[in-house]
Structures are given as structure tokens and as C-alpha cells.
Automatic annotation (TrEMBL):
Keyword terms, alphabetized: ATP-binding, Nucleotide-binding, Transport
Lineage summary: Archaea, Thermoproteota, Thermoprotei, Sulfolobales, Sulfolobaceae
Organism listed in the record: Stygiolobus caldivivus
Keyword Transport attached: yes
Domain ABC transporter: 5-230
Record flagged with keyword Cell inner membrane: no
Protein name in the entry: Peptide ABC transporter ATP-binding protein
MF (Gene Ontology): ATP binding; ATP hydrolysis activity; transmembrane transporter activity
InterPro entries, per database record: AAA+_ATPase, ABC_transporter-like_ATP-bd, ABC_transporter-like_CS, ABC_transpr_LolD-like, MacB-like_ATP-bd, P-loop_NTPase
């Protein structure tokens, strides 16, 4: 199987004043095309830092990030942002929907930013609203009129709309009750199975691991162990 993401000896050191904090130490990880990976670890272990580095929102202090055979570690900002738009969809704990836009407009926004013509946008938004169960009928509502689970589904639709290769999800179930959280993880599994999209999800909730292919345990910025899910 082809690797979509490779992390090679990735280190991240944050400097604040005279203090240094090593957030990631020599992280090596390969993610295969179409895999569903969970990053698990306690608060402060480095999960968000790792997702930000994979998602080209932050750079490692040392080491390399390779996306589909291309070393992207030291690309310029412009190239990184182009890759981000075309390659990666993000899902956050707090949904990050824009409150004065409708569901439809929130999902459409990445396409507006990417300059996709209106006709094509309409087709792509309609398609993704139909792919994610239970949100098509909400398309004219605003985020504040939706439940947490519905908002997260809209955020997932927004992450999917530009047909990314990879979805990065940072604690996507943390604000949801257990059943709604499990439904969101089931949805990731469906997206992986039906669309072949690679998913990397950070979570500290061991109840959310059932659908994952591999579980990467992170502790103190290091990969402690990797387990295959049976
Ligand atoms: N910009 C920053 N400046 C300094 N230290 C930082 C910065 N961002 C993160 N850190 C530190 O790096 C460590 C890893 O943080 P990170 O957010 O990646 O952990 P996490 O596993 O995602 O935690 P949580 O589950 O609480 O979100 C933490 O100790 C954090 O305080």
C-alpha cells in the first residue's frame, strides 16, 4: 500500500522567552492510503502539534514531513496553503462554523475561497450534503439552530467538499455525548470506506477507537506504541 503521510524523525520545540518545551521527539510514522488512524494520548502529549505539522499549519523544528512522496517540510507559505486547500480537510473539536452563514454557505466557503465557479460549487455542495446523513434538510439553518452532533456533521461536510485526500480531526467528539460521538466516528469510517479518504483523528477517548485501523499512542511527545485494531 502506498504511504500518504510520512513523518521522519519529527521534532518540535516551542520557545517562550528563555524556556524551551519539547512538544515532539523523534516521531516516525507512516500512514497508508485509505487508513483510519487514531492518535491517542493524555492532554499535552503532543497530538494537536502533530496534526498541525501533518496539516502544514506548523513546521517541525527538525525532521521531515512527506505527503505522497513530496517532501513538504520546507515549502514556502504560498505552496503550503495551496497544498492545504487541495489536499487536506480539517475537523475541530469546536466545529468552527461561521454563525452568520447558513449550513449551505458554511459548506460552500472553502470552494468560494478556492475560486471555484458558482455552478460547479453548487454541484459539489449538493453532493456532499447528500453524502452526510441528516444534513441536507438543515441546509438553510444557521449553526446556532443545530445540535452539537449536527454541527459536527456540517463541519465534516465542509472538510469534505473540496475532495481532500486526507481528513485531520482534532478531538472531534470531545464536545459530544457518547452516542453522538460514536455516530461521528461511524461517519468517518463510512467516509474512509466509501470515498477512500485517509483519516487521522486525535482523541483521548478510548471509546472512540472501534473503527480505526491503527492506534498510535503518544506520550510526552513520543510515539509510545502502535497497535493494529483487530
Ligand atoms: N505555541 C506553543 N508554545 C509553547 N508551548 C506549546 C505551544 N503549543 C503547544 N505547546 C505545548 O506543547 C505540548 C503539546 O501540546 P499539544 O496541544 O500538542 O497537546 P495535545 O496532546 O493536543 O493536548 P490536548 O489533548 O490537551 O489538546 C503541551 O505541553 C503544550 O503546552
Amino acid at each position: 500500500m502506498k504511504n500518504v503521510i510520512q513523518l521522519l524523525d519529527v521534532n518540535k520545540v516551542y520557545k517562550t522567552g528563555n524556556n524551551e518545551w519539547v512538544a515532539l521527539r523523534d516521531v516516525n510514522l507512516n500512514v497508508e492510503d485509505g487508513e483510519f488512524i487514531a492518535l491517542v494520548g493524555p492532554s499535552g502529549s503532543g497530538k494537536t502539534t502533530l496534526l498541525n505539522i501533518i496539516g502544514l499549519m506548523d513546521s517541525p523544528t527538525r525532521g521531515h514531513v512527506v505527503l505522497e512522496d513530496k517532501d513538504v517540510t520546507y515549502l514556502g507559505e504560498k505552496e503550503k496553503s495551496e497544498l492545504r486547500n487541495k489536499y487536506i480537510g480539517y475537523v475541530f473539536q469546536s466545529y468552527n462554523l461561521i454563525s452568520f452563514l447558513t449550513v449551505y454557505q458554511n459548506v460552500e466557503l472553502p470552494l468560494v475561497i478556492a475560486g471555484v465557479p458558482e455552478k460547479e460549487r453548487q454541484k459539489m455542495v449538493e453532493e456532499v450534503l447528500q453524502t452526510i446523513p441528516g444534513i441536507y434538510e438543515l441546509r438553510n439553518k444557521r449553526p446556532t439552530q443545530l445540535s452539537g452532533g449536527q454541527q459536527q456533521r456540517v463541519a465534516i461536510a465542509r472538510a469534505l467538499v473540496n475532495r481532500p485526500k486526507v481528513i485531520l480531526a482534532d478531538e472531534p467528539t470531545a464536545n459530544l455525548d457518547i452516542n453522538t460521538g460514536k455516530a461521528v466516528v461511524d461517519l468517518f469510517k463510512k467516509i474512509k470506506d466509501e470515498l477512500g479518504i485517509t483519516i487521522v483523528m486525535a482523541t483521548h477517548d478510548l471509546e472512540m477507537l472501534k473503527n480505526c485501523d491503527r492506534i498510535v499512542y503518544i506520550r510526552d511527545g513520543m510515539v509510545e506504541r502502535i497497535e493494529k485494531n483487530s
